[in-house]
Each structure stands twice: as structure tokens, then as C-alpha cells.
Task: structure prediction
Amino acid sequence: MIYDEDTALTTAEFLLQIKAVKLSPENPFTWASGLKSPIYCDNRKTLSYPRVRTFIRQEFVKIIQEEFVSVDVIAGVATGGIAHGALVAQELDLPFVYVRTTQKSHGLENRIEGVLEPDSNVVVVEDLVSTGKSSLNAVKTLRDAGSNVKGMVAIFSYNLNIAEENFTKERCKLITLADYNTLITKAKEHNYVMDEDMMSLLKWRKNPEEWGK
Result:
């Protein structure tokens, strides 16, 4: 779920302004999963814009303070959640760790980098959520290490039903700053997409597996 409507609209506008989001219904992008999508979101670009970066940090901090209690550690998901997670941990004066997508093949072969004490209460920071698979893999890694994952915050979600199902199944609370519905609404408002493109974008949201076939 999004944190609140005003935050979602502001976040969506920032993402469009800095061209972190590309909308291309006519020439769709292909995700690593093979899924075709009319939208591509690169939230790493937010780090290059101090005003946007600060806004994201402040909103994450606000969410964590309001929605989660007794947080001991902030964990970032590699790679997109590392920088934002570290900024949030600094602001909250909390320890920070990050979770690799796969176990290191050399050295200590860590999957979690940093010091994570057993039974720590952890909030996870992610840049975006699509199906939720990689994000929840990080949650599982933290839980397997003995942590109590209180939930996850992310900049953006694609609003896919499969993601909602996955997070519900794993009993992991997810709060995002913006989502797909808010983004395309803001994109239409500022003429990033035309009326004829909106139908295609809405159809993708309802059935991404069949869209574009």
C-alpha cells in the first residue's frame, strides 16, 4: 500500500521529472523474467538529485517512525536499496546491513553484509517492487539469520496482484511512497502519455502476463 496520496503524487512527479521512469506502450520493455512491460523504473537515478534523495529519505524515516515500533536495524536490498537504506539508518541513528541477491562466492561467503545481532527487529528498504520475489528473498534471508522483519518500505510498486499475494503469504507488511496507478495518473496530467496510451497502460496493470501478445 502507498503511505499517503500526497506523498505518492509528489514522488511520482519527482520520478517523472528526473526521467527515472520511462513509459513506452508502443515499444515495451522486457524484464529479466521475460514479462513485457510498457514501463521501466530506474530509481537509482534518484540518488543523483539531492532534493529528490532527501525527500525519499525523509518520507522513509517518517513511515518507519509511524508504522513500525522498536526497530533495531535498517537493511537495504542489493543493489537499489543499499544507498537509500544507509541514508535512512544514518538519519535514525541505527545500524545498517545489506542483503546480497546471492551468496558471495569468495571470502566469508556472506549473504548479509554488516553486523546483524540475533533477534534484531529489522525494517527492509527497497527501491522498487515488481512481483516481490527478489524483495521477499531478502526478507527470508534475514529471517533465516534469526531476525524479526517488521516490514518493508520501497520507493515504488508496480501494483501487481502477484506481489500483493506474495507479501500477504509471507506476512510481510509493505509500504511504498508511490505506485503504478499514481504514476500513470500523474504522467497523464503532465502529458507524458496521451489518452490513447492510457488504455494500454491500464490493461497491462490488470493482466501483465497477457498484455502485448
Summary: The mean pLDDT is 91.
